[in-house]
Amino acid sequence: MAAAGALLTAAALIAAPAAYAQDAAAEAPAAAAAGDPDKGKRVFNRCKSCHTVEEGGPNRVGPNLYGVVGAEFGSKDFKYSANLLELKAEGRVWDEATLDAYLKKPKDVIPKGTMSFAGLAKDTDRANVIAYLASFGGAAAE
Ligand code: HEC
Which single residue of 18, 62, 69, 92 has CA 20 to 30 Å from 82? Predict the structure, then answer.
């Protein structure tokens, strides 16, 4: 009986971490797709000269970015380019795919836009900075 008890204990010890690992695995794909907001905070250092992201933060060279993920183009009280406003009139929205394309190469999304930024070449940098933006308001934060 003592041996059976020991076996059970051993089985429980093995089963517990396995169950934990399964939970972690179930959550991992979503987290990976959404990027890491903590790492994105560092990437955002490259945007900071032109953008704030806090709620009610000021516009700089570019508009405040609070709640931008999922928002329509040009939702802030800011002097946007005519090209951005044309796209806004077409109903364009900053979903993650559009943000990803814009942050990779701004001119691909807004050819005559005024964001003079070379772009983030690394996929992970873009995913991480989008996750960081999403943690400041917007549909993705809810
Ligand atoms: C040199 C200044 C500058 C830098 C650096 C910069 N931006 Fe911008 N950004 C702008 C300007 C100016 C606009 C407005 C573009 C327009 O009207 O065509 C803009 C627009 C945007 C928009 C659209 C906002 C809206 O309300 O529609 C997003 C999103 C954005 N930038 C994200 C970023 C991110 C993220 C980074 C860093 C990876 C970054 N920008 C770096 C100047 C900059």
Answer: 69
Which atom of ligand 1 has the smallest separation from the CA of 99? 29
Place of tokens 């814009």: 102
Give 15-58 pLDDT, tens digit per residue: 555 555 445 444 444 434 579 999 999 999 999 999 999 999 99
**Residue 51 C-alpha to ligand 1 middle, in angstroms?**
7
In ligand 1, which atom is closest to the CA atom of 76?
26
User: d(Cα 83, Cα 34) in Å, to the nearest integer?
Assistant: 28
Structure tokens at 92: 């364009």
| CATH number of the 35-141 domain | 1.10.760.10
- Full-model pTM: 0.81
Residue-wise DSSP of 62-129 = S---TT-TTPBTT-SSS---HHHHHHHHTT-B--HHHHHHHHH-HHHH-TT----------HHHHHHH
The phi, psi pair for 93, rounded to 5°, reads -125, 145
